[in-house]
């Protein structure tokens, strides 16, 4: 795939992942094991996007792309890995949740998921403009 196709594929995966997170945020997915399973699917989408981003050729990139951070001090791959890390932490909570040894504060987790979604919005815009 060329850079344009890789950027489009990454944006498509991230857009799908964002819309899936919106289902949790808008209470369309009950916050129980279903929400955690949904987060697991989002992690897979972001992982696919990360692989596409990693394959984008930087040799053809113009000088305006060099040393440009998505978030302060973080390049594109690091930003995606940060989002992934947060979602994996939420996934890991599901084990504790299912064993009933954790009282889950739904509001706090939904706010965390909303924060991840906002970061993904920034990443999508960055990929679309710069790649």
Tell me what the structure shows:
It contains four helices and no strands. The relative contact order is 0.19. The two termini are 14 Å apart. The chain is mainly α. The model is unreliable at 61-67 (pLDDT under 50).
Structural key phrases:
131 residues; mainly alpha; 4 helices; Four Helix Bundle (Hemerythrin (Met), subunit A); 0% strand; single chain
Please render the helix and strand layout as text:
Layout: H1 3-25, H2 33-55, H3 76-98, H4 106-129
Task: Briefly characterize the structure.
With 131 residues, this protein is mainly α. Helix content is 71%, strand content 0%.
Number of strands: 0
Distance from first to last alpha carbon: 14 Å
Number of domains: 1
Q: pLDDT under 50 segments (min length 5)?
A: 61-67
Determine the strand fraction and express it as a percent band.
under 5%
CATH architecture level-2 label: Up-down Bundle
Radius of gyration: 16 Å
At CATH level 3, the topology is Four Helix Bundle (Hemerythrin (Met), subunit A)
């Amino acid at each position: 795939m060329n850079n344009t196709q890789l950027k489009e594929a990454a944006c498509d995966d991230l857009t799908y992942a964002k819309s899936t997170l919106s289902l949790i945020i808008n209470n369309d997915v009950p916050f129980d094991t279903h929400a955690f399973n949904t987060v697991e699917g989002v992690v897979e989408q972001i992982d696919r996007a990360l692989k596409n981003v990693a394959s984008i050729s930087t040799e053809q990139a113009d000088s305006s792309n060099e040393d440009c951070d998505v978030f302060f001090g973080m390049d594109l791959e690091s930003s995606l890995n940060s989002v992934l890390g947060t979602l994996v932490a939420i996934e890991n909570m599901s084990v504790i949740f299912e064993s009933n040894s954790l009282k889950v504060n739904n509001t706090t987790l939904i706010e965390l998921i909303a924060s991840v979604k906002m970061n993904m919005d920034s990443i999508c815009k960055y990929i679309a403009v710069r790649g």
